[in-house]
User: Fold Neutral metalloproteinase from Streptantibioticus ferralitis.
Amino acid sequence: MTNAPASRPVFCSIVPPHLLDSLARHEDPDVHLPARYTLELDAAHRTRRRIGALPTAVPDTATGPDHPVRTIYDARHQQTLPGEKVRAEGAGPAKDQPVNHAYDGLGATFTLYLRAYGRHSIDGRGLPLNASVHYGQGYNNAFWDGKQMVFGDGDGRIFQDFTGSVDVIGHELTHGVTQYTANLEYFGQSGALNESVSDVFGSVIKQYALRQTVDQADWLIGADVLAPGIHGTALRSMKAPGTAYDDPTLGKDPQPATMDGYVSTSQDNGGVHINSGIPNHAFYLVAAALGGHSWERAGQIWYDTLTGGALASDADFAAFARATATAAQTRYGDGEEYQTVLKAWSQVGVPAAPTGTALPRQASPQQQAPEGAQPPSQG
Assistant:
């Protein structure tokens, strides 16, 4: 087994802080009080992650059981984790649907990684999958804390039960996969890539569970977490970044689809939840062009990139794009897959061809990604 450096502890949640910040400034108490409460809890978890140590490991060979080992807990609207154990692996369905949704979502994630890529759970070695539901009072988020999943019920006004979207569960658990493999730093472009990888495999997991082809999929992240009455379809759209919602309370989806819309900001660790729309769209373009099932060729290329060991933890968009091109070429040669990857990154304005390699004739001119700010000193 090859050991990787210890990861930099970060807090990763499905609802981005920029959206919660906006809601926290709303004049309606039914909107701003739950948002402020969620931000306070998220800040506490972020601090605990920052002072904790999270070991990472990249196994040379996959080991572990060929089935998930799941345990679901009920936090009973308290903030103490994990809560009361309510469903163990192999037990029948509970009367509480969020318990069952969490159980099924953990299983769907395990199944995709095992059957599509031969990976045994999040760490590649059969890590048990634990989750707590009913966390807090009207908590508007879901997160992976480095050890387990945690789900809020939502406030009922803006958000609802976060266990209802299997892609949300897959997204958060994939932060764990990244933690144990490429360990992408959660700042700037590498942080946006960290978020994008989670969106990619969150969507792939949903498509695998529903046995959808790329043209049947909705390519939405969090389509079931917005409460009735909100003008929007989801938290994010990979097919059309920037169109997921446009609501008087939520505001308008700020994600760009190409480097022309790249957002330079100091908020949200350098806009990790905003600029992730660019690599998200690149993956969608690859999957749509290749057709079939997203977990096959397109997903395999992204998985090879994430787990291959050659990707630097501070990789920017261009480095990741080149790595996907190399992964495609290594596995499939110089044919359709490789050319499709080059073209997709070109369409979003990121250079992907390895140094010294000519771009395909159909590719549009490249646009170099702007340099992001460096992460603050850890001293």
